[in-house]
Amino acid sequence: MIGRIQEILGSEADGLLNHQCKTIPKDKLHLPGPDFVERIFVPTDRPTRSLVSLQQLFGAGRLANTGYVSILPVDQGIEHSAGASFAPNPLYFDPENIVKLAIEGGCNAVASTLGVLGAVARKYAHKIPFLLKFNHNEFLSYPNTYDQIRFANIRQAFEMGCTGVGATVYFGSEESKRQLQEITEMFHQAHELGMYTVLWCYLRNPAFKTKEKDYHVSADLTAQANHLGATIGADIIKQKLPENNGGYNAVNFGKTHKKVYSDLTTDHPIDLTRYQVANCYMGRAGLINSGGASSGESDLKEAVKTAVINKRAGGMGLISGRKAFQRPMQEGIGLLNAIQDVYLTKEVTVA
């Protein structure tokens, strides 16, 4: 499989596959592995039932018992509108086909809305771990606003057989204070009911975007969002892949330290992502990076590149949706499998 990965990466293969991280040593990280639940979660305050649910997640799909995860997220019908999301492939207006894609694509779990998962829960909840995303930013209100509001409660996730729940916080926004208070309570309830928790740690503030760069994907700012996510009890952190650094200094707010930029990061994407992992309690909360929007023909290379960066940085996997479902199902399955192959290939090592 390494030959195929090199072929897909093309001219970027050497720089990504042979890079050695000299910032935060890999032996200081809590890396994914077959024993991750026992090694990392058993000593925590997580209830026994949550440990069982986590093991179900890690034991499913093509990546079963590796410690890595591949998750299919399909909540874009709310976040980006159903038309914008599913018009490229109307098959996925039907919730059953979303779940089928996750199963046939070898995913560890399918993450979606109350409506999507509830529509097929009795038929599929025992066949693949369900992850209920309970808050969303809807785009039908005019003018558009950016606020994650609750669409479901934790009891509904429990009763439909979900193994975990997920939510988004827009860190940096005025609404984030309310979102944090809501989600920390709901994550606690999810753990009490035996589920695991996943937090989409996204940044949202106009000040984070300057004329020069968009610091919503800055390593230092996204890493702090990860740290806050781990603080409120997220078992897994979802974050965008970092594309730059120095957001604190560019926006001129908050607190940072010069060693973040001189010692703990470089401009290499693996080193930037390593800093994200470090802020997930050195990997105790697994970092999964998002696959991003579908760009067409470049999707395969972008997805495999993101997976290589995540794995080599010490991350736990990829959560990729639009690149997979905005194309014919067999092509989507192939793309998901290509992502998973990165985590199954022993030659792709932690840098």
Structural summary, described in words:
The chain is α/β, with parallel strands linked by helices. It has a single domain (21-342), classed as TIM Barrel, CATH 3.20.20.70. 43% of the residues lie in helices and 13% in strands. The chain has an 8-stranded parallel β-barrel, surrounded by 6 helices. A two-stranded antiparallel ribbon has the order 4-5. Strand 7, helix 11 and strand 8 (236-239) form a beta-alpha-beta unit. The model has no long low-confidence stretch (mean pLDDT 96).
Question: Biggest sheet, open or closed, and with what strands and sense?
Answer: 8 strands, parallel, barrel
> Which topology does CATH recognise?
TIM Barrel
CATH class: Alpha Beta
Number of DSSP helical runs: 17
Our Rg estimate from Cα atoms comes to 19 Å
**Which structural class do you get from the secondary structure elements?**
alpha/beta
What strand order characterises the main sheet? 1-2-3-6-7-8-9-10
Estimate the strand proportion.
5-15%
Shape: globular
User: So, the CATH homologous superfamily?
Assistant: Aldolase class I
Q: Percent range for helical residues?
A: 40-55%
- If you average the pLDDT, what whole number results? 96
Count up the domains.
1
Topology pattern, helix = H, strand = E: HHHHEHHEHHEEEHEHEHEHHHEHEHH
Topology:
Elements: H1 2-9, H2 13-17, H3 36-41, H4 48-58, E1 69-74, H5 76-86, H6 95-104, E2 109-112, H7 114-119, H8 121-124, E3 130-133, E4 135-136, E5 149-150, H9 154-159, E6 164-171, H10 176-192, E7 196-203, H11 219-231, E8 236-239, H12 247-251, H13 258-262, H14 269-278, E9 286-290, H15 299-313, E10 317-319, H16 322-325, H17 329-344
Parallel strand pairs: 1-2, 1-10, 2-3, 3-6, 6-7, 7-8, 8-9, 9-10
Antiparallel strand pairs: 4-5
Helix pairs in contact: 11-14, 14-15, 15-17
